[in-house]
Each structure stands twice: as structure tokens, then as C-alpha cells.
Amino acid sequence: VTGTAADGGAPAPGGGPALVAALGRIVGGRHVLTDPDLTGSYRTDWTRRFTGDPLCVVRPADTAEVAAVVAACAAAGAPVTVQGGNTGLVAGAVPGDGDVLLSLTRLTALEPVDAVASQVTVGAGVTLANLQAHARAAGLDFGVDLAARDSATVGGLTATNAGGIRVLRHGDMRAQVVGVEAVLADGTVVAHLGGLPKDNTGYDLVGLLTGSEGTLAALTRVRVRLVPPLDHRVVALVAVEGTGPALDVLRSLRAAGLPLAAAELCYADGVDLVRSYASLKAPFDQAYPAYLLVECAGPAESEDDLLAALGEADGVADATVASDPRGREALWRYREAHTEAISAAGVPVKLDVAVPVGRLAAFTAELPAAVAGAAPGARSIVFGHVNEGNLHVNVLDAVERAEPVTDAVLRLVASYGGSISAEHGIGRAKGAWLPLCRGEAELAMMRRIKAGLDPADLFGRGVLLGSLDAAR
Ligand code: MLT
Ligand code: ZN
């Protein structure tokens, strides 16, 4: 990865063994890891494409320990990479060589649900699945969901402004986060956790830290809004002839007033890969070019309405519907197992893009030539969150051609007025392409925010703007 302790950082008077010893005095020696056998899962990302060699992994138990750890690192001039569940896909939480890897997975406090406000405050290290279970035990639910729910942490989801499969209904993390507590680069603890729906008292610091990718602060607690439980769910897997017909079906279902909760798109090659990876039978008697998965959720049954709307919709080649939990899960598996199946097939170049939804069909038609031009013989598996025009372009057999493939696809995206990262973020992987989406004045403003809050470039050195600067 880029961003080593040696590339321009402040000298580290107390770095190395002295810093490791100081961190051990703060968190207890057994929570400072240096043995490569123990640090392996923290050093490499989920895709196995990115790896770093930290000075140590430090695992504080609470906010006070995080603040003391950051203050010690600041005093030593040692860069800090903050990590949650390490499920990120752009190396934002992969340590730079020589960094202190600050793992927040021990911050697992679940505070009581405030049922009146429909909010809860939890520690940054709480997993998404545990937050969901906590909300459901109080008769509510959490509005964000994604396949990495068992490992992804609330801190990481917030720091990356995660999206996932329910953005269509509830929005992304920014739409859920109503307060944060964080440790700044000098060890100061800053908190705004009141969760007031109306609060016009200055800059939106909570919104600023949400999506800051570990470059401005280490988030320690997060307050989120909760949503009503939607107990009646029905899922349809709809066979379609391609991207355009999938969008036609989605438009019809929306026009029918259905309580849509998810709309996901995948293609024949991805479903084939998933089927052989997970030993699943074919969803239909014959293969189709593309599959739209839709979920409706509400306080009342909507299966009959969904069936009726599918019957009316143009573009439906075939469809199968399930409302019982096992049947729903079986249909979701065709979509949710894509990430694992792709990873089992090789180390992918993962691109996460969005284009205006009205131009999605044209974009998907141009995409294969762009990939083939940059990496002849590579295999692209594409799937994603179709309602937002967000496609995950996974290119297999192309790691050696990662840069030209990324360049070709992201330039195509930019020519469509799209985003080079719809939900995974910039991390250490995508900075070089940030100017495709963000103007010089915007980038200069971001740099001033970074310099104001973290003048020594302690947090996430080489991430986001750091990866842009390294690419220049
Ligand atoms: C997903 O939508 O499943 C995630 O963004 C993960 C991925 O892109 O592989
Ligand atoms: Zn996604």
C-alpha cells in the first residue's frame, strides 16, 4: 500500500519499541499485537489485494483508552490507521507500513434503545448484526443492511458512509447517523450525541465525520436513528432480458405504489458463478441475461400486490416469489453470495460506480469494451444496487492490469456523469481518480479541512486525499 511512516511524516522520537511499550501501558500488553501470526487478519483486506505492515495493532477497550492511544501516537509522530471490522474494499483500513493499527472492535457497548426518540447510541466496534438484533429486541430495526453484517462495525460503516441493500428505503449511513463521539488527532474527545432532530447550532460536524474514511478522527460512539420493524416481507427474483428491461420492471413496481425495500441487479455470468460456488439450483427452467431481485416490506402482507404488479409490468420474462423466511433467504442468496463467489474465483479488481439511472443501460452496454481494451481476456462480474444506478464491477484475472482497468472503467463512468465510488469510498485504492468526480476547489476545501483537524497527517496517511497526493 501507499503511505508509509517514512514518506514525509514527522519524525518519530518515541516511535518503535518505545511507543509499543507506551501503548501496552495504556491498554494492557495483551492488547498490543506485534507477532505477525496474530496481526495477519488486521494487515490484509478482505479481497487479499491490499496488505500493509504495521508497527503494531492496538486494541483499546473504551473512549478514554482510544484518546490516550492517539495522544501517545501524536506525541511520537506515529501515523494511525483506524480499523473496524476490516470488511472495507478500498484499503482504507489497511495499515500503511509502520503505522499503528488502531482496532476499535473492543468498543462493543450497546446502550439502551431510546424508544421515544427511536434512537440508540452504540460503541464503534458493535457489528451491524448486533446493532440490528439490539434494535429488533426493542421492537424496532436499523435502516442499513449489507452482506458483511456479521463483521462490519458501526464505526466502520459510519466512517465510510456505507450504503448497502436498503438505501432505496432508508438511505445510507449519513441518513441514519444523528450523533458521534470521536477522538481527534491530538487526543481530544469531541462528542455531539444528543440526537436532536432539529439542531441548527453551527457546522454539521457529525455529517463531516461520517464518510471521512478514518482521515479526520477515530469514531468511538455513534448514535443512530432506528426505523419501524417491517415484519411482512416478500421477495421476487425476476428474470429479464437485460439492464433496460430491469429498469422498466422497477419503474412499474414503483408506479404501482409497492412498499419497495430493495432492488438489486445481477447478470447470468454472476449467477452461474454463485451457483457453482454455493451449489444452488437454477432459479428458472432456462437461463436469462439478467435478474432483478426486489423486496417489498411493510406492516402488512404485500405478496398479492407484488404478484399483480409483476403481472402487469413490461419486461418480466419470468419471476419467482417467496414470503417465508427460508424462501426469501434462498432468493437473496443468488445476489448476496456474489462477493464470496467472486473472491473464491480469484483476487478481483473491485470497482464501485454509479451513473445516473436513466443512463445505466447505455453504460452497461459500453462497459465490456472498456474492460477488454484495458485487460484482454479479463472476466467482469457486475452486480449492484440498481435503484441508485450503483454497480459493482468486479474484474477477475486482471490484478496485474488493475491500474489500466480501473482507469478505463472510471473514465467511462465520469463520461456518464457518474461517481467513481458510490458506496465503498476512496481509501488507498482510488485517490488517483478522485479528480474525475471532484473539482479543484472542492479538493482544496477538503485539504483545508484535513489540515485544520489533523495538521500532522496522523490519521489515515495515504487514504482519500493522501492517495490522491501519492498518485500525483
Ligand atoms: C455488496 O453490495 O454486496 C457490497 O458492496 C460488496 C461488494 O461490492 O462486493
Ligand atoms: Zn454494495
Describe the structure.
By secondary structure, the chain is α+β, with helices and mostly antiparallel strands. It contains 17 helices and 15 strands. The strands form three sheets. The chain has a seven-stranded antiparallel beta sheet with strand order 12-9-11-10-14-15-13, sandwiched between helices. Strands 1-2-4-3 form a four-stranded mixed beta sheet, with helices on both faces. Helix 1 runs antiparallel to helix 3 (63-76), helix 10 crosses helix 13 and helix 14 packs antiparallel against helix 15. The chain is globular. Mean pLDDT is 95; it is low at 1-13. Bound molecules: D-malate (MLT) and zinc ion. Zinc ion binds at residues 385, 392, 423.
Broad shape: globular
Which structural class best describes the helix and strand composition?
alpha+beta
Bound molecules: D-malate, zinc ion
Spans of at least 5 consecutive residues with low confidence: 1-13
In DSSP terms, counting alpha (H) and pi (I) runs of 4 or more, how many helices? Answer: 17
Fraction of residues in H or I helices: 25-40%
Q: Major β-sheet, in short? A: 7 strands, antiparallel
Rg of Cα set: 22 Å
Lateral strand order in the biggest sheet: 12-9-11-10-14-15-13
Mean of residue pLDDT? 95
Separation, N- and C-terminal Cα atoms: 15 Å
* Residue share in β-strands: 15-25%
Q: What's the β-strand tally?
A: 15
